[in-house]
Amino acid sequence: MKPWYTALGLACPRHLEPVRSLTVDQALRHASQGVGILWQGSFPAARRLLDGMRRRLDRQPADPEVSFFRYRQQRRTRTRVLGMVVVPLDATGRVALPGAPDVRDAVAAAAGGPVTDRLLALRELLGMASAHEWRRRGVWVRALNRYIHPHWGVFVPTRQEYVDLVAAAPLPGADLALDIGTGTGVLAAVLARRGVRRIVATDVSARAVACARENLAGLPAEIREADLFPPERAGLVVCNPPWLPAQPASPLDGAVYDPGGRVLAGFLDGLGTHLAPGGEGWLVLSDLAERYGLRTRADLLERFDRAGLRVAGRLDTVPRHRNNRGETVSLWRLSR
To answer: Are 110 and 143 within one domain?
Structure first.
């Protein structure tokens, strides 16, 4: 049996059953019992099977407003079940199934190098291929009138209401801005477009730093690998932290889930010492944590007060995505 490979920390199924043909019902029964499906039929048939399993699991989608933690448990179960369909890579890194596309570049981009002669979950493989296509084609950003190219493992700015807020907020100063947790660099690019003369962007992820350097090439931005703040003080400090103070289920959830609210707390506690006189900190945050009962508005305002910050203003917007049920995204203008 080939060794297991995962970039997401997925566990290898304890038992793998070689299969050439299977119904959706049979596949779900195998997967729910912890039996991995080592696919040996055609690649298109494997995709059809996985799509059928996903559709069946999504017939009664979990409602996060009923119970956030129950919702998360259901999503983890869904991820585990769909991860039970396994495909082999040959000694050249190709998927060793008839009709398979060449995904070697996509896997190498996600893994940081070639992956050969391994087994991996079909769902993870398809995610790698999709991420590689995002990187190749890019995501059109209205506020920039250009494409941003996300790397695998870096948050894709498909929801752009937070970008639009940074593009619209009244700019305090234009000499130096800090972008904390830059990700793809999209907010730093918006600040550069608005005329900020120098930007220092940081991220704790080496993948994000490489991604931002690619997207910000030619702009007045310096990208550094750092946990939150660089040593500079600036007239504007921007941060769009993970919105939900909960445990991520995989490395790809890190831009959305912030265990214990560490990033938010670190930003607020350090903001005052990194603001130049008269400067502002822009905190871009959804109210999803409040809607799911993970944090109250009073908790957030108390955090501001404890950090010695006052609210100079706030801009709100309503997301345009179809699943929005009253969510509001806000840009909090904070000062000392």
So the answer is: no
- Is 235 in the same domain as 206? yes
Q: Are residues 163 and 112 in the same domain?
A: no
Backbone angle region of 229, left / alpha / beta, with phi > 0 → left and psi within -120 to 50 → alpha? beta
Asked whether residue 4 is assigned to any structural domain, the reply reads no
- Picking from 94, 113, 135, the residue at the C-terminal end of a domain is 135
- Given 3-state DSSP classes, what are the helix, strand and coil percentages for the chain, each rounded to the nearest 5? 35, 25, 40
Asked if 222 contacts 200 with a C-beta cutoff of 8 angstroms, the reply is yes
Q: Are 282 and 334 in contact (CB under 8 A)?
A: yes
DSSP H or E stretch at residue 291: helix 288-291
Q: What is the DSSP string of 50-62?
A: HHHHHHHHTSS--
How many whole angstroms separate alpha carbon 174 and alpha carbon 168?
A: 14
Which stretch of DSSP H or E encloses residue 300? helix 297-306
CA dist 5 to 41, 42, 116, 306, Å? 20, 21, 9, 45
> What is the per-residue pLDDT across 216-242, written as a single tens digit (0 to 9) for each?
999 999 999 999 999 999 999 999 999
Number of domains in the chain: 2
Pair 130, 157 in one domain: no
We report the CATH number of the domain holding residue 314 as: 3.40.50.150
- 54-78 pLDDT tens trace: 999 888 666 665 677 777 788 788 8
pTM, rounded to two decimals: 0.89
The boundaries of the domain holding residue 246 are: 139-335
Residues 118, 54 within the same domain: yes
pLDDT in the model for residue 262: 92
Task: List the helix and strand counts (H, then E) for the chain.
Answer: 11, 13
